[in-house]
Amino acid sequence: MSSTGLPEPWTVRFSKSKSRQYFFNPQTKESQWDEPEGTDHAALKQYLVDHPLRVRCLHLLIKHKDSKRPASHRCDPITISKEEALEELSVYQHKIEQGEKFEDLAKSRSDCSSFKRGGDLGSFASGEMQPPFEKAAFALKVGEVSKPVETASGVHIIKRVA
Ligand SMILES: Cn1nc(-c2ccccc2)cc1C(=O)N[C@H](Cc1nc2ccccc2[nH]1)C(=O)O
């Protein structure tokens, strides 16, 4: 039995087309919706808590002059330095710690086009976001807020919501 709770060599994957998880045997190339016979259901459940196939996050992005796309619905062009962006982000970090709603802060300040949805990026799997963002997002527990995260887009605060 592997740490997944699945009998070897079964793995668990996510079907984007069906928006549900499925099970795949890399030896036989079989795939199926149901858990394979002999699955330790409790161990599989815990594995998926510790290793989510997908996460859903909100984020607040502050771009700077060296961002890969230094443009925003808020103002063009963006001229602040990365240091100034980090300084401003720390103000929002404090507001979040003081209980201000993440969505409201993202709507008012985020330079990502997801601002209109309170920074909601929807759910995503590994491989869909820039690596530093993915690493930070998948390390969060549901409800947790990250420390500042730097990507080529700028500097972010991330909140995992599912
Ligand atoms: C990844 N993504 N999703 C949306 C989005 C999602 C839902 C609704 C509207 C927009 C926008 C983006 C996006 O790349 N936006 C970029 C900025 C950006 N760069 C990111 C890097 C990682 C995660 C989110 C990021 N957002 C932009 O507007 O210049």
From TrEMBL:
Membrane-spanning parts: none
Enzyme Commission number: 5.2.1.8
PROSITE patterns membership: PPIC_PPIASE_1, PPIC_PPIASE_2, WW_DOMAIN_1, WW_DOMAIN_2
Keyword Calcium found: no
Pfam families assigned: Rotamase, WW
Catalytic reaction list: [protein]-peptidylproline (omega=180) = [protein]-peptidylproline (omega=0)
Enzyme class: isomerase
A GO MF label: peptidyl-prolyl cis-trans isomerase activity
Annotated protein name in UniProt: Peptidyl-prolyl cis-trans isomerase
